[in-house]
Design brief:
The protein is α+β, with helices and mostly antiparallel strands. The protein is about 50% helix and about 5% strand. The chain folds into 3 domains: about 150 residues, no CATH class; about 60 residues, no CATH class; about 100 residues, Aminopeptidase, CATH 3.40.630. It has a 5-stranded antiparallel sheet with strand order 1-2-3-4-5.
Length: about 350
């Protein structure tokens, strides 16, 4: 039966240049194309493809992320049929400690290609490996957040916070923000203090103390920022909300109170509304940028808008999301995060 299936596939398969992964290979993401080419070159592997487990899928993707040459018939058979020890010994020259458990806790779809390389690097670090060993799920965000954390903070903070992939996402950017606003002399100094943290209350108290040292914002941002102009009249904002069919009008009281402001980025083809808000002592931050009817702004335009506001001292609220989240645990900030 297997031989007949393979022969039928070989006879009906499209030419190599015409091959493209189908719907059933969706979980394989970027790894689907090289795997499809492997199976088309050796149709006897087709039954193994249909019987592939989630762990095998990640093992193949991990190997492909590290391999430069993927066309060898031997490689195809090894990746699909070889044992994890055989595959990783060939690809990495070793079998990393903790990789067997890690493969069982990866998601139902492949990771981003670069994150398989980061995963191996993290498993090679004793503190990072311990964090991953206790993680219920290891996904793209968990790997990226753990890799971005200063090495000294990986173990203490990850063990102190139950939902560390979410709460520690962007911590380094937040620490750099604090230093740029006069808290500490450098990021290393703040890292050294956080490395002493043993529990969430201590972490929240430390961050709350840092935030309390920030100066209070003295004035609103300028009336014009790049191509954007501030809409100070609530009636104009309400009119724009009606034309664009969003809830900008709900910020009228905040505009009158001086706690938020709406800017209209004037572009004939791609206009956008920019919401900035005062986040306590963290200052004025760019919270949202949306097009008409809450449409998402193209990445290139968003980058230009974000940079324009950063130039006048209004960075994206993303740079402080981590310390803001931790500060909330101490009863501190309550940022405006409603969707338009």
């Amino acid at each position: 039966m297997t031989e007949q299936l393979s022969c039928d596939f070989a006879a009906t398969a499209p030419k190599r240049s015409q091959l493209f992964p189908g719907y059933l290979l969706t979980p394989l993401g970027w790894a689907a194309t090289p795997l499809t080419l492997m199976v088309s070159a050796n149709p006897t592997l087709l039954p193994d493809l249909f019987g592939m487990s989630r762990q095998r899928m990640h093992l193949i993707a991990l190997a492909l992320a590290h391999l430069e040459a993927r066309s060898s018939p031997y490689i195809a058979s090894l990746l699909i049929r070889g044992s994890p020890h055989q595959v990783l010994q060939h690809v990495l020259g070793r079998f990393p400690a903790g990789i067997k458990r890690a493969l069982k806790h990866l998601p139902t779809e492949v990771l981003r290609q670069q994150n398989y390389r980061l995963l191996i690097q993290l498993l090679d670090d004793a503190d990072s490996a311990k964090v991953l060993h206790h993680a219920d799920q290891i996904d793209d965000r968990a790997i990226r957040v753990l890799a971005d954390l200063p090495q000294k903070l990986r173990k203490p903070l990850a063990f102190a916070l139950a939902d560390w992939p979410r709460k520690l996402n962007g911590l380094t950017d937040s620490l750099q923000f604090l230093v740029s606003h006069g808290v500490g002399t450098n990021v290393e100094e703040l890292v050294a203090e956080l490395a002493k943290v043993k529990a969430v209350p201590q972490l929240a108290a430390t961050v709350a103390f840092w935030v309390s040292r920030l100066p209070l914002p003295e004035a609103m941002p300028p009336a014009t920022v790049g191509n954007a102009r501030r809409l100070d009249e609530v009636g104009i904002v309400c009119s724009l909300a009606g034309r664009w069919r969003n809830c900008l009008a709900s910020y009228g009281s905040g505009i009158d109170a001086g706690s938020c402001a709406v800017y209209l980025w004037e572009d004939a083809e791609r206009p956008a509304a920019c919401l900035i808000a005062r986040h306590g002592r963290l200052g004025w931050l760019l919270d949202q940028v949306k097009g008409p009817r809450n449409s998402e702004v193209e990445p290139d335009q968003l980058e230009v808008i974000t940079e324009a506001f950063a130039q006048v001292g209004v960075p994206s609220s993303q740079v402080v999301r981590t310390i803001e989240s931790i500060y909330q645990d101490s009863g501190g900030l309550h940022p405006m995060d409603e969707d338009w």
